[in-house]
Every structure is written in structure tokens, then in C-alpha cells.
Amino acid sequence: MESTEILQEIAAQVKICEKCQLSFSRKNAVPGTGPADTDVLLIGEGPGFYENEQGLPFVGSSGKFLDELLNKAGLDREKVFITNVVKCRPPGNRDPQPEELAACEDYLDRQIAAINPRVIVTLGRFSMAKFMSNVKISEIHGQPRWVKGRYIVPMYHPAAALHQPKLRSVVESDFAKLPEWLEKAKNAQPEEEVIPEETNDSSDSDDNAVQMSLF
């Protein structure tokens, strides 16, 4: 089966999924959008109000900011794949729960395998945690590393910069380096990097920025 067909199959399954409680409160599931042959996969947290209405990822305020960031980095939104760690909107834009993340994990893993991107950009704490545990986003944002043979770029969620203006320049600076990292990923051989063991301190205000309410 071709990658495009696999992604279409996954999307069809997501739209009727009832693996967790989010299926009972959603209006539309949000599988993700983008071409199967892209080099760049962006993974956010979860759909918000507008995404739930339209069934598309990043169409609210943080989505508009993401478009700006991609444009400044010389990337076309239509040429990257965008999805989330959970495919249905958590009520009130709360954080996704462990059982919800687990329910969607197979869908995301299959999307990653089908696309096989050169670079995966994680947007926010929950998508970062899929690849890097026990670390703070405030300490490793914008520091790409190989994880299980994939080049992972941890970044703040765009909504974090909208909630905390002091982060805007940080997010813009990180995204500006994306073309450089993409080129490095294309030319480099995968290597495993050891993630330092740290305590994920829940008191870190940057790490716990309210990242989803502007979706």
C-alpha cells in the first residue's frame, strides 16, 4: 500500500474512533493534513475549538502564527504534514490525559512510519515527551537530536508565545533555524543521542504555559 493510501486509511479510522472518552465530546476528529512525501512532520498537542469545528489542525490563532513561522523559514504549509498527539479535542482545551495519549499513539506511530520524515518538529510538552522524557522544554527547545534514528526538533507550541509574549522571539528564533536543521538531517547519518536524566519540574512556568486555549 502506498504511503498516501496508508494516511488516508488512518484518517478514516481516526474519524470513527471510539477508543477513549474524547470521542464522545468531539464534533470532528482531526487526523492531520499534508503530503505523504514531505520531509517535515510537525506534531502538536491536540485540536482546539476551531480544529474541532473544521476537522483540520492548527486553524485557530496559534495556527495563523504557525503559518507565519513556516513562511519565515521558507516552508510552505501545504508541503509539510501537521498533526497532533491526540486527534480529538480535550474538553475545555485541557491537557490530554495518559489514556487519551495511549489511545492515539498507534495512529501517530503509523503516520510517522508512512511519512518517514527527515525532521520531526514537536510543538509543546506532550509531543516532545513522546520522544524525550524527563526533560524540560524550557531547557532543550531548539536543540535537535537523533532519537531512535529520527531527527527530533523540540519547540515551544506556538500558543505558548501568544500567551507569553517573552517567548515569541524565542519561538521565532528556533523556527528560523529549521532550514539549517533540515539540511543537516538530509546529509547526516542517524545517531543516537543520550537524553540527560532530569526531573520534569511541574513548577516551571514556561513548561506549563497554557498552550491550547488559542487553537
Describe this structure in words.
The protein is of the alpha/beta class and 215 residues long. It has one domain: Uracil-DNA Glycosylase, subunit E (3-Layer(aba) Sandwich). The protein contains ten helices and five strands, in the order ααβααβαβααββααα. It has helices spanning 3-15, 22-25, 49-54, 61-72, 98-115, 125-131, 137-140, 158-163, 168-176, 178-187, and strands at residues 40-44, 81-84, 119-123, 145-147, 150-155. It has a five-stranded mixed β-sheet with strand order 2-1-3-5-4, sandwiched between helices. The protein is globular. The termini are far apart.
Strand and helix map with partners:
Layout (H helix, E strand, L loop, with lengths): L2 H13 L6 H4 L14 E5 L4 H6 L6 H12 L8 E4 L13 H18 L3 E5 L1 H7 L5 H4 L4 E3 L2 E6 L2 H6 L4 H9 L1 H10 L28
Parallel strand pairs: 1-2, 1-3, 3-5
Antiparallel strand pairs: 4-5
Helix pairs in contact: 1-5
Rg over C-alpha atoms, rounded to the nearest angstrom: 16 Å
Beta-strand proportion:
5-15%
Biggest sheet, strands in spatial order?
Answer: 2-1-3-5-4
Number of domains: 1
Tell me the span between the first and last alpha carbons: 34 Å
Averaged pLDDT: 90
Per CATH, the class reads: Alpha Beta
Coarse shape: globular
CATH architecture: 3-Layer(aba) Sandwich
* Secondary structure tally: strands: 5
- What class do helices, strands and sheet pairing give? alpha/beta
Specify the CATH homologous superfamily.
Answer: Uracil-DNA glycosylase-like domain
Stretches where pLDDT is under 50 for at least 5 consecutive residues are 194-215
Main sheet record: 5 strands, mixed
Percent helix, as a range, is: 40-55%
Number of helices: 10
